[in-house]
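**User:**
If convenient, please work through this fold.
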Amino acid sequence: MEMIEVFSFDELDKDVQRDVINKFINDTEYYEDCDWIEDKYNERLKEFGFFDIKWEYNVGFCQGDYARFTAKVSWDDVILFLREFEDDTIRRVITLIECEKVNVWGDVHNIYRCSSSVHFEYDINVDDEDEFEKLDEFMNWFIGEYHDAFLKFINEIEKEFRKDVEEELLYQISDEYIIENIKANEYRFLKDGKMI
């Protein structure tokens, strides 16, 4: 009865090792569900008052790649993001919210591919018609100004997220990752590199 020689990865010839790695690369199914990356970005977004966050992404290193999220926005928390506005303006909005003269809420939506849109609504709780008109004008202006800054922030977050997912997928087809995987699973091979 002929004995079959079995080898660990380290015992294979260097050229055969290269062939084994290349076969793993070609057969790899990319783990696009990068939960740990989603968790990391969800925590960042929650700091700015986002909730009900859902990520969608397709990263395969081609022209159609995208990363985007949908969410709702809690104004009371997201007010902390408004640092780029003048302090007096921020203080005024905070005061209006705290005294319940104004209530603001919003949603983040996605358009085809990587574009996002933000929609804010508000209501004004005052009886005086003149005061209502002034607050309405002010909030219209304020949300218009805030919208652009907010959209820029969202697009930057989406770009960062996509970059992290791309790096993770590149790692999954790196020699380092594949060799770690082979050793962790204690795969065994024939002399020609065929896995048994």
